[in-house]
Amino acid sequence: MSQSIDTINQIIRSRRSIFPPDYIDKEVPRDVIETILENANYAPTHRLTQPWRFTIFRGDGLTKLADFMSDTYRSNATPESFSEAKYEGTRNKVLKSSCILAIVMEVHPDKVPEWEEVAAVSCAVENMWLTATALGVGAYWSSPSNLAALEAFLNLTPTQKCLGFFYMGYHQAKDKPAVRKPIAEKLTWIES
């Protein structure tokens, strides 16, 4: 039992956001992605609504997403605010990734409040992140500013909302310590 807790402690405490500039040119295999997604499926969910949905971009799908993201930036930028560097950076961030998951939430307003669905999807993403960490896959969750256009691009229904992207790739990032204040500063004990 202590070996299990040591392992989970190590994985939780070493999880970090790993960004595309640190990704290397090595494809994350489909079976690894499926393992990551399978663990997402075991997140807690009130009334078993299981609100998480994922659209997976890899291979040529990444090019389609890069085109969409950069074209959306170009069309929303004024001539004065447009930056060629930002345009290229938007494309390259997508293309440097081995895989990107669009994180989609299916709401069930007749069953549970929306915040509970957001919490369930967030737990699913944390399960993915911890699994990716254990498998040596770098990842991070990003919320793009063009969510309305993105929802149309993803062909979402009126009961679905995009909560961002989960970027993934094998990486060469160096380990870095967590920046957390002590848990004792965040606790209130009531014992009598």
TrEMBL record:
Residues 12-170 form the Nitroreductase domain. Its EC number is 1.-.-.-. It comes from the Bacteria. Its cofactor is FMN. It is an enzyme of class 1 (oxidoreductase). The keyword NAD applies. Keywords: Flavoprotein, FMN, NAD, NADP, Oxidoreductase. Signal peptide: none annotated. Transmembrane segments: none annotated. Belongs to the nitroreductase family. This is Putative NAD(P)H nitroreductase. The lineage of its organism: Bacteria, Pseudomonadati, Bacteroidota, Cytophagia, Cytophagales.
